[in-house]
TrEMBL record:
It comes from Advenella faeciporci. It comes from the Bacteria. CDD domains: AAA, Bac_DnaA_C. Residues 372-492 are annotated as: Domain IV, binds dsDNA. Pfam families: Bac_DnaA, Bac_DnaA_C, DnaA_N. Residues 1-100 are annotated as: Domain I, interacts with DnaA modulators. This is Chromosomal replication initiator protein DnaA. The keyword Cell inner membrane does not apply. NCBIfam families: DnaA. GO terms for molecular function: ATP binding; DNA replication origin binding; lipid binding. ATP binds at G198, G200, K201, T202. Plays an essential role in the initiation and regulation of chromosomal replication. ATP-DnaA binds to the origin of replication (oriC) to initiate formation of the DNA replication initiation complex once per cell cycle. Binds the DnaA box (a 9 base pair repeat at the origin) and separates the double-stranded (ds)DNA. Forms a right-handed helical filament on oriC DNA; dsDNA binds to the exterior of the filament while single-stranded (ss)DNA is stabiized in the filament's interior. The lineage of its organism: Bacteria, Pseudomonadati, Pseudomonadota, Betaproteobacteria, Burkholderiales. Residues 187-321 form the AAA+ ATPase domain.
Length: 492
């Protein structure tokens, strides 16, 4: 079993991004294989990891197991087995045998409530540098929820209940639930969320803050934009209140900092944040960070910071797929009193506007204003067409994945059909990966949508192609030139 599982891990590591491996695959462990029934039993330490593995990895592990055990009828069973059921001294095959005979805990929903804060003991915080916090604010366990909210800058309306979940943010949402369950755990600290603007990173951050406050697990909370943190620091120097500034931030149970890329070229700010980071993580206090790019790709940010950002859990939020865009529009329309958005109208808007949630909200507001001016209560396709004709004229000029596939196929002298085929010779695989890369760079399609347009491939395949071409472009001057020619051709 040990050899099989090592082989399985190696295969999955070639197909999945490192953050997925670390968060969802490595916590799994083999329990045993029943030769008679053909059942492979695998343990998961939490209900969320169990459900995620069952949904996303069953088919691939079953395929690998069938090859390894040389039988086509292998069934994969995921079971919830708490980590503390295995004696610490046991590992590898020994642990697998012990777990196989251990009683399996019943599956329960991951808890999101609790009473014990994970921060340090209550203390008085002298605050004069951070805005809107009185000089003698006490953040003890007995403080009211209203008091915590007032000092936290958390938006109480941005909750998990108001968040629309789809394939593009499913991983980030599941990881967030784990953090609400056990904040400050090293594997999820820091929690680094990255993606383009308007995709819901800030919403998810506030949702975590709201859930932890409601659960009574945090008392000293602060949401802040990176630019505001810089301003607070500058103000503390100007007013000779740096000690108070430092004491306030170092006393937090939960820090949510948005758009960390705004720290670029601010060396002193980066230095102070590094010391803050080290203090909070050492005390198991949760840090959540958002950015527009992957930690290692942040420019003008010190290496010691980016390496620490990458040491916890890093997840990517993609542009929402079509079904998710429709769901978002319908949810937003429900929140606007007195209007009715027809589902076909929501589908029409979602089909033409692909980039982000903020764009969808803007389009809905524009339709709402148009309908209000004309005394209309129901938003039909015709109303949306008229209200959004300016936006749609721009959208119709967008580069399509189909156009990219044809252009790349012509350039490398292969058939367009090879873009969808399962064949993998080098003369076909490389152009196909280049087309996937250009589709990600030049269109607003999400990774799952791009994968669907390349023969129903998984989004992890597209992500692998994007990363491979991104890295190769930097090292290979000829490839970089070819990509430049293709980009200019597609842009007309």
């Amino acid at each position: 079993m040990k050899e099989f599982w090592q082989s399985c891990i190696q295969a999955l590591a070639q197909e999945l991004p490192p953050e997925q491996m670390k968060a969802w695959v490595l916590p799994l462990a083999p329990l045993g294989f029943d030769e008679e029934l053909g059942e492979l039993r695998i343990s998961a330490p939490t209900p969320i990891k169990q459900n995620w593995a069952k949904t996303n990895y069953t088919a691939r592990i079953q395929e690998l197991a069938s090859q390894w055990f040389n039988r086509p009828d292998v069934k994969v069973m995921f079971q919830l087995v708490r980590a503390n059921q295995v004696p610490p001294a046991m590992s590898g095959a020994t642990a697998a045998v012990a777990l196989a005979s251990a009683p399996v805990a019943p599956v329960q929903a991951a808890p999101v409530t609790g009473t014990q804060p994970f921060g340090t003991s209550p203390e008085v915080i002298i605050e004069s540098a951070a805005p809107n916090v009185p000089a003698t604010a006490s953040f003890g366990n007995t403080e009211s929820e209203d008091f915590i909210y007032k000092r936290s800058h958390i938006n109480p309306n941005l909750t998990f209940e108001s968040l629309v979940v789809g394939r593009s943010n499913q991983l980030a949402n599941a990881a967030s639930a784990q953090i609400v369950d056990k904040p400050g755990v090293s594997a999820y600290n820091p929690f680094f969320i990255y993606g383009s603007t308007g995709l819901g990173k800030t919403h998810l951050m506030h949702a975590i803050g709201n859930a932890l406050i409601k659960a009574g697990k945090v008392n000293r909370v602060r949401y802040i934009h990176a630019d505001q943190y810089y301003s607070d620091l500058v103000k503390s120097f100007r007013t000779s209140t740096f000690d108070e500034f430092k004491r306030y931030y170092h006393s937090l149970d939960l820090l949510l900092i948005d758009d960390i890329q705004f720290f670029r070229k601010k060396d002193r700010t980066q230095e102070e944040f590094f010391y803050l980071y080290e203090t909070m993580v050492a005390q198991n206090k949760q840090i959540i960070i958002t950015s527009d790019t992957y930690p290692r790709e942040l420019q003008d940010i010190s290496n010691r910071l980016t390496s620490r950002f990458d040491s916890g859990l890093t997840v990517h939020i993609e542009p929402p797929e079509l079904e998710m865009r429709v769901a978002i529009l319908l949810r937003k329309a429900e929140e606007k009193p007195g209007i009715i958005l027809k589902e076909e109208a929501a589908f029409f808007i979602a089909k033409h506007l692909r980039s982000n949630v903020r764009e969808l909200e803007g389009a809905l507001s524009k339709v709402s204003a148009y309908a209000g001016f004309h005394g209309l209560k129901t938003f039909t396709v015709e109303v949306c067409k008229e209200a959004l004709k300016d936006l749609l004229s721009v959208s119709n000029g967008q580069i399509t994945v189909e156009n990219i596939q044809k252009t790349v196929a012509d350039f490398y002298k292969i058939k367009v059909q090879e873009m969808y085929s399962k064949r993998r010779p080098a003369n076909i695989a490389m152009p196909r990966q280049i087309a996937m890369y250009l589709a990600k760079e030049l269109t607003q399609k999400s990774l799952p949508e791009i994968g669907d347009l390349f023969g129903g491939r998984d989004h992890t395949t597209v992500l692998h192609a994007v990363r491979k071409i991104t890295e190769a472009r930097v090292k290979n001057a000829e490839l970089n030139h070819q990509l430049h020619v293709l980009e200019q051709t597609l842009k007309g």
